[in-house]
Amino acid sequence: MKEARLIIEKRKYIFRKILWVMMIMKKLQYEIFICSVFAILLAGGIFFCNGCGLISMAGMPTRHEKKIPAEYELREQKDKKILILLEQPARLIATANLRYYLTRDIREYLIKRVRMPAEGLISYERLVEYRNNEADFSRLTPLEVGRGLQADIVLLVVVEDFRLYNMAETGFLKGFLSSRAVILDTTTGEKVWPKSFESKGIKVGFEFDVRNVEIAVSRLSAASAHCITRYFYDCPMDKFKIADDRSGEAWENW
Q: 61 preceded by cis ω (within 30°)?
């Protein structure tokens, strides 16, 4: 009887141990479950927050989408005749025909970027013909020239300085072009742009280019055309400033 009782007690002890182990295991499983749920919720929260950040970033406009507002909405004058008039000092005429290059490039930029209709821009050829046939052309004011060609608006660009230097023993050129621009209304005789200043100063230049005068002049002309016409439409922020833009820099002192 005594041995039988000992066996029963031993089995009860073992059974209690087994129950205790099972309770511990169940508790551990519960804690692991809770931790797993917490981890999942935490990860979900982080993902959600990051997702919101990504969505916010995705919704932010890029530098190309951001626009610098036009100073003068030339597109609003698309039904009017526009004359691009270049004044070039006599001392610069022998160097390059800047009138031709600048008129060509400004016209191209007005059509492609400002989206002005080509038929509304008085051609350079017509201006040359008028100049040749008008005996006192040199005495005419820009407004008088504009009226003579039945233009409603005159985009006047006055070349102030132009330089090309051969960089000694390098085979490269260094260039600089300075001009001022205004828009005149031939009906009222008033300046309509810029509002805050007498005229808009434009300076462009480069330090090195191939030894080819025509390419160098074209480069300066295209840069000037961009720097003038960018004020006439909502220009993308990443396109507003270009590499050859030297406005505000004292390049005239070199």
A: no
* Residue 253 predicted with pLDDT over 60: no
158 phi-psi bin (left φ>0, alpha ψ -120 to 50, beta other): beta
**pLDDT per residue as tens digits for the range 131-177:** 999 999 989 999 999 999 999 999 999 999 999 888 777 778 889 99
pLDDT for 217 beyond 70? yes
What's CA 22's distance to the chain center, in Å? 71
Q: What tokens were used for 79?
A: 């039904």
Rounded Cα distance between 109 and 69, Å, is 17
Cα(230)–Cα(235) distance, rounded to whole angstroms?
Answer: 6
End-to-end CA distance of the chain: 120
| Distances, alpha carbon 107 to alpha carbons 27, 91, 94, in Å | 82, 25, 23
Q: At what angle do helices 98-112 and 124-133 cross, to 10 degrees?
A: 140
Q: pTM (2 decimals)?
A: 0.73
